[in-house]
Each structure stands twice: as C-alpha cells, then as structure tokens.
Recover the amino acids of this structure.
C-alpha cells in the first residue's frame, strides 16, 4: 500500500449525490482526525464544488486520498470528464478556496480537475497502514442518509456554530469590560506617573542648575590655581636664579678663597636652589598646560634626529654601569607633530625611568600600530602597584616607599607629560608590576 492509494471513491450523477458526497466528506474528515469545524469546511467545499460541476450537466468522479508522510494532508480530487470545460470555473470557486488550505483548478486537456488539500492537525492519530485499512472498511460500510438527514445535520452544525459565536460574543463583551477597567487603571497610573515624572524633572532641572553652578565654581577655582601657580613660579624664578648666580660667584676662582666648610655650605645652597628652580619651572610648565596656553607648532618631525638628540642629552644621566641606556633606531622615519613638545614628553619619561632604575636597562623605541604611532619607554625599575598606576599622573604624587636611585623627583614630570600628550592629540598609559619594571606608552595619531 502506498500513500497514493485512495481511501474512498464515489461518482456524482444526480443532484441527490451532492448530499451523499457532503456526508462522505464529513465522515472521511472525521476518520482522519480533522476537528469539527474543519469537517464542516471540507463537507461544505465538496458540496459547493459538486453543485457547480454537476450543474454543467456531466458526471464527476470524487477521490479521497491521504498523504501520511511529511506534513499529513487530506486530498480530495473532483474530476469533471466532459470536454470543453466549465467557463470561469476558477472564478466561481474563489470563495470556496477559503475553506481549504489549497485549491487548484486544472481545466486544460479533455476535462477539468479540482484538487483540494487540508492539513491534518498535529494531534491527529498516526495514519499507519493498519489505521488506513480500518478507515477504508468503515467508509465502505457507510450508508448515505437522505437529504432531510443531511439538512438536520447542517441545522445542528449551524446551531453549534451560533452557540459558539454567542459564547465568543459574551467572552468579547467580558474582555471589553475588563479592558475598559484596565484602561481606567492605566490612565490613573499614567496620571500618577506623569505627576511623579514632572516632580522628578523639576528636581533634575534644579540638580543640573546646581551642577552648572558648581562647574562654574570649579572652573574658576582651576583657573585661579593655574594663575597662582604661574604667578608664584614666575616670581620665584628670579630670586632662585639670583641665589644660584651668587653661589657661583662665591665659588669662582677670582673671588676670595673660601674655607672648606664654607665651600661645602655654598654648594649645598646652590644644589638646593637648583632643585627649587627645577620645581618652579615644572610648576610653570604645568600651569601653562592646564591654562591651555600651549599651542602646538605642527610640522614634519624627523624622529631619527629627535632620538639622536635624546640619546646625547640624556647619556650623562645614565652613568651607572648597572643600567644600559638604549635608544633604538626609529621604525617610523617621520611624524607630523610638535618637535619640542614631543621631545619634552619623551625626555620626561626617560628621565623618570633613569631615576628609578637601579639595574637592568632603559629603552626607547617607536612602532606603527594601525592609524597610530606608539613611543615606548620600558625600564626594569622598581615597578608600580596596579592600584597606584593612575595616581602617579597626579601633581606631586610619588609612590610610597620609592626612592630615586639618582636625582630627585618632584612629582610633576609625569602629569606634565600626560597633558602634553593630550595637547598633541594622543594619550599616555602605563603598564607595570612591582619588581618587574614599567612600560610607558605614548600614543599619537599618524596625522594631526
């Protein structure tokens, strides 16, 4: 037995056969597992198509077939054997096609064939070969009723449909009442939320006004601090420079000879004044950067020349044999930037690395990374704990317990370097671990 073997066949010859095929269609639909409404749809479609075909004056063969594989379907074929076809048949059966999933009208050739397909529900019993044989046997015993019997069945179906419609209408009325009640609750909640939102908005507006006021005050305080640092630094430079000059005169060979103790004390004065001048210059540079008074002078910078200058000027600081000072040849020949500011950033980073590296190496290199250029200053110094790696960019902050191997630290070099990096359109970050050294990376765009 194959899927194409029909369940049942019959022929429409007279008008009374329309009632019989309607009854048979309903029985077949029930047997294969279609629901009650789908049974009525199939029966109605069969009677309507049979009425149209039989009205043309020719007999019609009706075949019921089940396709149990894939998506199970009930297929009904109604073949009209007369030649010439039925005019406008597809148009006449257009409304009938809504009762089934698929309807095809083939009026080419010697006759006309109407094929209707209805999918079986997911919960329908499995149509095994044994079940198919049982359905055939049951249908073979089916005795068609009279037109009055079919009319009574239709009336019962109509009453059931009306009851269902009435129940749906009652459910709809109940749902409408619930929806109306819900809408009233939603509107009340909406008004409540609107009032609360309006109150919140007033609070937010007041908060923004307060924040704006605080921002103005903070900006004014920052400007005042910058002016203070600039003025104090400027005023201190003159006397500090004078102290250094006087100390140099006292130790000059043309001046009166000083005792050994006097010479030592004068040298202490000069060293302290030099440290103070370095701090004053750092404060002045930092104040200029914070006030936005540093304007970069953009040009094509020869990195080989910059690296050579740094190698020469910082070589005197790398006097300890335990530390190897290395400036690699630049992998990027030129870069559009400000040569003075770029050299200042790299000088600050290298000076800081040399101060805090007791043994190992301090290395400067540059590499292209996508649309950026990265200058890397790596050392094997004491390292910085992760929780303090951002604080080292704060003014005057120094890592607790860290002591420079050479020179003195002011805590201004790194903050100034980061601000200069921002002015150049880039950024400065640090990667470090205690005891493993630090790596400072200056990122600058290829074009500015």
């Amino acid at each position: 037995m194959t899927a194409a073997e029909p369940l049942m066949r019959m022929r429409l010859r007279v008008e009374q056969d329309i009632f019989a095929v309607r009854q048979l269609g309903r029985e077949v639909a029930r047997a294969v597992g279609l629901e009650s409404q789908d049974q009525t749809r199939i029966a109605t479609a069969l009677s309507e198509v049979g009425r149209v075909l039989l009205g043309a004056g020719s007999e019609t063969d009706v075949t019921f077939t089940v396709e149990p594989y894939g998506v199970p379907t009930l297929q009904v074929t109604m073949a009209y054997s007369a030649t010439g076809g039925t005019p406008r048949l597809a148009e006449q059966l257009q409304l009938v096609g809504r009762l089934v999933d698929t309807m095809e009208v083939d009026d080419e050739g010697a006759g006309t064939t109407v094929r209707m397909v209805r999918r079986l529900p997911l919960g329908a019993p499995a149509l095994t070969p044994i079940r198919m044989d049982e359905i055939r046997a049951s249908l073979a015993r089916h005795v068609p009723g009279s037109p009055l019997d079919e009319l009574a069945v239709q009336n019962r179906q109509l009453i059931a449909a009306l009851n269902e419609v009435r129940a749906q209408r009652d459910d709809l009325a109940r749902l409408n009442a619930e929806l109306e009640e819900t809408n009233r609750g939603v509107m009340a909640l909406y008004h409540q939320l609107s009032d609360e939102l309006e109150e919140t908005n007033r609070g937010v507006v007041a908060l923004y006004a307060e924040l704006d006021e605080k921002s103005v005050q903070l900006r004014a305080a920052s400007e005042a601090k910058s002016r203070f640092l600039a003025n104090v630094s400027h005023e201190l430079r003159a006397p500090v420079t004078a102290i250094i000059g006087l100390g140099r005169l006292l130790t000059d060979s043309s001046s009166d000879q000083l005792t050994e103790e006097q010479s030592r004390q004068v040298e202490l004065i000069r060293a302290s004044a030099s440290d103070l001048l370095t701090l004053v210059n750092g404060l002045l540079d930092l104040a200029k950067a914070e006030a936005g008074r540093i304007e970069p002078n953009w040009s094509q910078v020869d990195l080989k020349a910059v690296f050579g200058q740094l190698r020469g000027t910082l070589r005197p600081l790398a006097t300890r044999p335990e530390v190897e000072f290395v400036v690699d040849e630049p992998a990027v020949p030129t870069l559009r930037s400000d040569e003075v500011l770029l050299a200042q950033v790299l000088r600050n980073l290298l000076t800081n690395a040399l101060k805090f590296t007791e043994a190992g190496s301090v290395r400067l290199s540059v590499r292209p990374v996508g649309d950026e250029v990265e200058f890397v200053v790596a050392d094997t110094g004491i390292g910085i704990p992760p929780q303090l790696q951002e604080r080292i960019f704060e003014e005057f902050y120094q890592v607790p317990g860290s002591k420079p191997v050479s020179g003195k630290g002011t805590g201004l070099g790194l903050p100034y370097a980061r601000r200069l990096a921002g002015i150049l359109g880039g950024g400065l970050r640090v990667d470090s671990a205690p005891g493993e050294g630090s790596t400072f990376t200056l990122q600058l765009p290829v074009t500015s």
About this structure: Residues 182 and 188 are 10 Å apart (CA to CA). Residues 147-250 form the longest helix (104 residues). The chain has a mean pLDDT of 80. The radius of gyration is 49 Å.
